[in-house]
Amino acid sequence: MWAITLFEGITNVPVKDCIEFETRFVFIVPPGSLAKAIGKKGRNLARMRETLKKRIQVIEWNDDVEQFIRRVFNEYKVQKVVFEERNGAKHVTVFVDPAKKASAIGKEGANLRLSHQVISSYFEDIKSISIG
Known about the structure:
Elements: H1 2-11, E1 17-20, E2 24-29, H2 34-38, H3 43-52, E3 55-60, H4 65-72, E4 78-86, E5 89-96, H5 101-105, H6 110-122, E6 126-131
Parallel strand pairs: 2-3, 5-6
Antiparallel strand pairs: 1-2, 4-5
Helix pairs in contact: 1-3
């Protein structure tokens, strides 16, 4: 994908995956490479945003599902992650800073849907996510 090539060229960080949405690109990067991907004072993200004309989100990969979920919702200040079974399917409730709850959900649930899509693309057993 051309966006991966662009990201790797600007950041000099390999990309594990790139997911494009209507309003943003989400890049998944290897563990330990988040700071380098963002760049000094966010310069790399600013260049990506200017070039792609969309919001850029960079998430550091983690094999542990809870840690990955925390990274997906990082900007909303995750307080805890609770896993449970609902009607035979795995459900996750992510508790965030109450002041950030509306942002985590997004307009008409857009941010929550996007986050669920990113998470479920790697952890297929997670069927639903809610914000607490």
